């Protein structure tokens, strides 16, 4: 019986796979491994895991394509592994629905802690929303349906983008640091705060009239971000 859960590690580097496996097993996880995207999809189908650790750069089917295919059939938590400097891949992974990313070279112990944290958050029952609908002018969120609309058209938000926007709309005019948002939206008491930065950037691209000059999600220099109602 899996104590913590089953994790699928997909990476073409055998050394990385072995190190990650050992640390995850020490943390109580059962670990399956795959050396490329094709094998990863096959193992996922045969033994559905509770979480996937997925390398971006792999021969054949790369990690971004694997993430896309997994999101078509499952909401399993996905942690992407990206190389230092691959910002576009990190953004693309988050846009496709990845829950988090870890930059290589990484601490295996921190990755194991991150996996534990992501799984804990994913397994937490969602609280009943205080309001069925949150809105700001032409922007509305239907909380029960988890649906966002701008000017009547549905917004293609990822799960985390929706959670972040809902949090902002529920707490307008309050400045939050990246650490605050990482704790309150992601449920993590540690982690790479640039995850928040990337999600805010992606959210602005979808809800701001001019993303380069945001009026809804304002940057509070030296602090973090604040949502301003009625500015669009």
TrEMBL record:
GO terms for biological process: regulation of DNA-templated transcription. It holds the Pfam family Trans_reg_C. Keywords: DNA-binding, Phosphoprotein, Transcription, Transcription regulation, Two-component regulatory system. It comes from Amycolatopsis xylanica. GO terms for cellular component: cytosol; protein-DNA complex. The modification 4-aspartylphosphate is found at residue 55. One of its GO terms (molecular function) is transcription cis-regulatory region binding. Residues 131-229 bind DNA. Residues 131-229 form the OmpR/PhoB-type domain. This is DNA-binding response regulator, OmpR family, contains REC and winged-helix (WHTH) domain. Residues 6-119 form the Response regulatory domain. It comes from the Bacteria. The keyword Signal does not apply.
């Amino acid at each position: 019986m899996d104590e913590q859960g089953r994790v699928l590690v997909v990476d073409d580097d055998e050394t990385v796979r072995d190190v990650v496996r050992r640390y995850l097993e020490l943390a109580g996880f059962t670990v399956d491994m795959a050396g490329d995207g094709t094998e990863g999809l096959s193992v996922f189908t045969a033994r559905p895991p509770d979480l996937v650790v997925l390398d971006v750069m792999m021969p054949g089917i790369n990690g971004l394509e694997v993430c896309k295919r997994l999101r078509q059939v499952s909401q399993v938590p996905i942690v992407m592994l990206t190389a230092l400097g691959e910002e576009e891949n990190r953004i693309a992974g988050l846009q496709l629905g990845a829950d988090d990313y870890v930059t290589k070279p990484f601490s295996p112990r921190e990755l194991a802690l991150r996996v534990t944290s992501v799984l804990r958050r994913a397994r937490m029952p969602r609280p009943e929303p205080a309001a069925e609908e949150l809105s700001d002018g032409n922007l509305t969120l239907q909380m029960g349906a988890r649906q966002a609309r701008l000017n009547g058209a549905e917004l293609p938000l990822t799960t985390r983008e929706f959670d972040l926007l809902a949090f902002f709309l529920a707490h307008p005019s309050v400045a939050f640091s990246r650490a605050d948002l990482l704790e309150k939206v992601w449920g993590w008491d540690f982690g790479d705060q640039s995850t928040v930065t990337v999600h805010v950037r992606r959210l602005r691209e979808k809800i701001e009239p001019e993303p380069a000059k945001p009026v809804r999600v304002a940057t509070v220099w030296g602090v973090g971000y604040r949502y301003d109602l009625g500015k669009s």
